[in-house]
Specification:
Number of domains of chain B: 1
Strand order of the largest sheet of chain B: 1-2-3-4-5
Structural class of chain A: mainly alpha
Shape of chain A: globular
Mean pLDDT of chain B: 85
Number of strands of chain A: 2
Distance between the termini of chain B: 76 Å
Largest sheet of chain B: 5 strands, antiparallel
Oligomer: heterodimer
Helix content of chain A: 55-70%
Distance between the termini of chain A: 24 Å
Strand order of the largest sheet of chain A: 1-2
Low-confidence stretches of chain B: 183-187
Largest sheet of chain A: 2 strands, antiparallel
Structural class of chain B: alpha+beta
Chain lengths: 202, 187
C-alpha cells in the first residue's frame, strides 16, 4: 500500500467518523464551532501520528498480554504533552477545548489504529496511517462543525455571515442537533461515495 | 513462563518510566508559561474593571471562599476598590470570575477569566451585555427569568445553571467582600 493511498483511505474510503463510525464522543462534543473542531481534530491527529510511530517501533518488544496497558501509557503520555503545550502556547484554544483534550486518551480511533494497524505494520506505514486517519478525523469534524456553527450560531469560524436579522437555531449546537447533523452528514457522504464508486466500476 | 513474566513487567515499567521522564520535561518547560498566562488574564480583567489602580493582594484565611482578593489603591496608596477571584461550578466545568466592588460593596464590574460552558447557551453568560447587568448591584441579587426589579438579573434563557452559577459567584463575592470592607455593605 503506498502512502498516498493510505492518506486518501483515511480521508474518504475509510474515514474514521463518517465510515467507521468511531470516535463519536469527541465528534459530537467538539463540533459546536469550527475553531474547536479544527483544534480537536489536529490535536487528536498529532497524538495519533506520535502514538502510531512509537507503538510501531516498539511492536516487537511489547508483550501481547500487556499490549493495551502499554498503548494506553504511550497515548496518555502524548495527550498530556499536547495538553500542556496547548495551555502554554495556545491558551485560548485550550480554554475552549478544556476537558476534551484529556479525553483523547480514550478516543477509540487512536487505540483502534494502534491495535489494528501500528502493532502489525512498519514505522513508515504507521506514520502515514496516522496522518491519513488524523486528517480524516479532522476533515469530518470540520465538515460537521461548519454546518452546526452556521445554522446554530449564524457564524463561520466566529465571523457572523447572516447579518443581524438571522435568529440562530440553538438546538443545532446542542447534543440532539449534533446527532441530527451527524446522521444527515453520514447519509450524504454515503450517497456521494457510492456514486463515485459506481462511476469507477462502470 | 518466567521469562515471559519478566518481559511483561520490565517492558511496561520501561514504557512508564520513559513516559514519566518525557512528561516531567514538558511540565518543566511549560509550567511557568501556563502560570504567567493565568496571572496575566486575571491582571488584565482586574484592570478592565478598575482602570488605573494598583492591586495589593490580601492574605486570606483558609475558610475564605475567594481564590484571591485584592484592594485596588490609587497612586497615593488610598484604597479605592475591592477585587476578588471566585471559582464556581457551572454546567460543564468550573467558571472563574473576577468581581470588582467599590468600598460600599456595590459591583463595579464582573469578568469571566475561565469558562467552558455550552457554546451558544451557557457561553452567553460571558457576554459583556449580560455581565453588565451586575453593575451597581449590592446586597442580595435575584436571578429571574425576566427582569422586573432593578435588583434583578435576567437569566440567559436555556442556561439557568450557568446563569445561577455566575450569579452565585457574584453573590459570594459581595457577601464576603463585606467582611473586608468593614461591614459597610447595606444589606
Amino acid at each position: 500500500m503506498n502512502s498516498l493511498k493510505q492518506i486518501t483511505d483515511g480521508l474518504f474510503a475509510n474515514n474514521p467518523v463518517l465510515v467507521q463510525l468511531i470516535g463519536m464522543c469527541p465528534t459530537l462534543a467538539t463540533t459546536t464551532s469550527l475553531k474547536n473542531a479544527l483544534g480537536m481534530g489536529l490535536s487528536a491527529a498529532a497524538v495519533l501520528v506520535c502514538s502510531n510511530v512509537v507503538i510501531s517501533i516498539l511492536r516487537k518488544i511489547i508483550p501481547v498480554k500487556v499490549r493495551i496497558a502499554c498503548y494506553i501509557v504511550i497515548i496518555a503520555g502524548f495527550v498530556t504533552v499536547v495538553d500542556l503545550l496547548m495551555q502554554a502556547y495556545l491558551p485560548e484554544l485550550s480554554v475552549s477545548l478544556g476537558m476534551y483534550i484529556p479525553l483523547i486518551v480514550v478516543n477509540c480511533i487512536i487505540l483502534a489504529r494502534a491495535e489494528a494497524f501500528a502493532s502489525k505494520n512498519g514505522v513508515i506505514a504507521s506514520f502515514f496511517d496516522g496522518v491519513g486517519m488524523g486528517l480524516g478525523f479532522t476533515f469530518a469534524l470540520c465538515l460537521l462543525a461548519f454546518f452546526r456553527e452556521l445554522i446554530g450560531c449564524g457564524t463561520v469560524y466566529g465571523i457572523p455571515v447572516f447579518g443581524s436579522g438571522y435568529e440562530p437555531v440553538t438546538v443545532i449546537v446542542q447534543t440532539p442537533g449534533g446527532f441530527l447533523c451527524l446522521g444527515i452528514l453520514i447519509a450524504a457522504f454515503k450517497v456521494v461515495s457510492d456514486k463515485i464508486k459506481g462511476r469507477k466500476r462502470s | 513462563m518466567n521469562k515471559e513474566r519478566v518481559a511483561m513487567v520490565s517492558v511496561l515499567a520501561f514504557i512508564c518510566i520513559a513516559a514519566a521522564a518525557l512528561l516531567g520535561y514538558v511540565n518543566g518547560v511549560t509550567k511557568d508559561r501556563i502560570e504567567a498566562i493565568a496571572n496575566d488574564k486575571m491582571q488584565s480583567a482586574m484592570e478592565e474593571i478598575i482602570p488605573g489602580a494598583v492591586f495589593k493582594e490580601i492574605t486570606l484565611p483558609d475558610s475564605s471562599k475567594f481564590d484571591k482578593a485584592f484592594f485596588a489603591e490609587d497612586e497615593a496608596g488610598n484604597k479605592t476598590a475591592f477585587c476578588a477571584k471566585v471559582t464556581v461550578s457551572g454546567f460543564a466545568d468550573d467558571i472563574v470570575l473576577i468581581v470588582g466592588t467599590d468600598l460600599n460593596g456595590s459591583v463595579l464590574g464582573v469578568k469571566i477569566t475561565q469558562i467552558n460552558e455550552t457554546a451558544g447557551l451557557g457561553s452567553k453568560t460571558n457576554d459583556e451585555a449580560w455581565l453588565s447587568q451586575f453593575k451597581g448591584l449590592s446586597g442580595s441579587i435575584n436571578l429571574k427569568k425576566v427582569k422586573t426589579l432593578p435588583t434583578d438579573v435576567a437569566a440567559v434563557s436555556g442556561a439557568t445553571i450557568s446563569s445561577s452559577a455566575v450569579t452565585g459567584g457574584v453573590q459570594t463575592a459581595l457577601d464576603e467582600a463585606a467582611v473586608y470592607l468593614g461591614g459597610a455593605n447595606d444589606e
